[in-house]
Predict the 3D structure of the following.
Amino acid sequence: MFGDQMKRMLMGVFVLIASFVWAQAPDPQLLAEINKIKAIDNHSHPPRIVGPGEKDDEFDALPCDPLEPSALPTMLRPENPRFLAAWKALYGYKYDDMNPQHVRELMQSKKQVMDQQGDHFLVWVLDQLGIESELANRIAMGRGLEVPRFRWVPFDDPLLLPLNSQSLASESPDRKFFYSREDMLLKRYLKELGLAARPATLEQYTAKVITPTLEQQKKNGAVAVKFEAAYLRSLNFENASLEDAQKIYSQYATAGAPSSADYLKLQDYLFRYLAREAGRLGLPVHIHTGGGCGTYFRLAGSNPLLLESVFDDPTLRKTNFVLLHGGAGPFTKQVAYLLIKPNVYTDFSEQTWLLSTRKLSEVVRDWIEAFPEKVMFGTDLFPNTAEINWEEIGWMTSTSGREALAIALTGMMEDKEITRARALELAHMVLHDNAARLYGWMK
């Protein structure tokens, strides 16, 4: 009797293990269909075409390269075999190693393709990645970044920083650099508006700087606006009063630097004002959440739960917010619940190069099982080394993202949660339709 019970228990364990292993592999037919879908990449940092001696310094308002060196996550390290696969897929690389002589051949092949494609090279890359349109987070667009294949998402953190930021910049070496970059960008925005200096009053600043900048960005093709605020401060944008904000602005508009507490209060007011204006103009607000670069990055301040009072503000319900990276790191579970808010969306950009495909599939499944209409695909590709550049990172992240989605949907099919037809419908939603509806490209 005991032997029969043990056999039944062991058989149960074997069945459980078999189903677990199967759930980790994507259904081949489903993956093949997913690979055919032309995706919308919700978040990326593509470069522009540059000529000899030129440099593209506009692919990110807060670039990480000048910071103190830190270790790369495993998936981004050059030894990742997916980069070999990318070389083969993109440039016909013939080898299964990264021998220096073979890599020199690769670089010759790259140059040949780039020369052949010319200004069309960026679009050629998107064709290889199966991307219909890519939202480009850049200070400005440029050569080769053609609409509608590339859509502009400008950075608007500088609009939150009209005063001397010495108190906040002194909090870490990284923030000192980042605030200097924001100061430069604000001066650029003021110059584009024909203003030599910031206005004297808060009302003039919001009316003559923030609103016109947003309107000009939309006129110039922006489809959303982006905040990297978690690199500069906590995402806890409290509901500050107009009176308090006016007092702080007027006190330091011409001289001096506000305390950190006062400056954060002013930023709280300006952020909500800006978000309301973005909603009025139909521009979704993208916000960096979760882990970031730099060894001084304060992870606790990037928790998307800190934004809950913003999402619940009745005056902001016409503004759509996108939690970029889905709280990459410890906050992905919280994001799944935040998606119940009618104006909150997310994508799994950054996680496509931060997590293994298998781990990413677990995050994607959590979100799809919660609110599949709110989940979007994203690569967070960016310029890198000549050997492993934005196109290799894009190929790796696109491939991993599609496979993770297929694994998640396969598991849901195996668990009888969805049919095969529904799985394919969900794949289209995540890779394309959810973003197309959010940005008004599809009804």
